[in-house]
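Re: weekly structure request thread

Next one in the queue (54 aa):
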Amino acid sequence: MARNDIRPIVKLRSTAGTGYTYVTRKNRRNDPDRLVLRKFDPIARQHVDFREER
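Done, posted below.
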């Protein structure tokens, strides 16, 4: 089984509308839905939700 099948690279985009993104990997078996993480957006200078973008 290939490495990218279970843990694909996903892009997390800020919901604040700044266009800032984080890049991470996720486990598709544990998180089959879209990932939502609360992280710091340096452009908005606050913690906001980052949603998985496909």
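The chain has a mean pLDDT of 93. DSSP finds one helix and four strands in the chain.
Next request, please.
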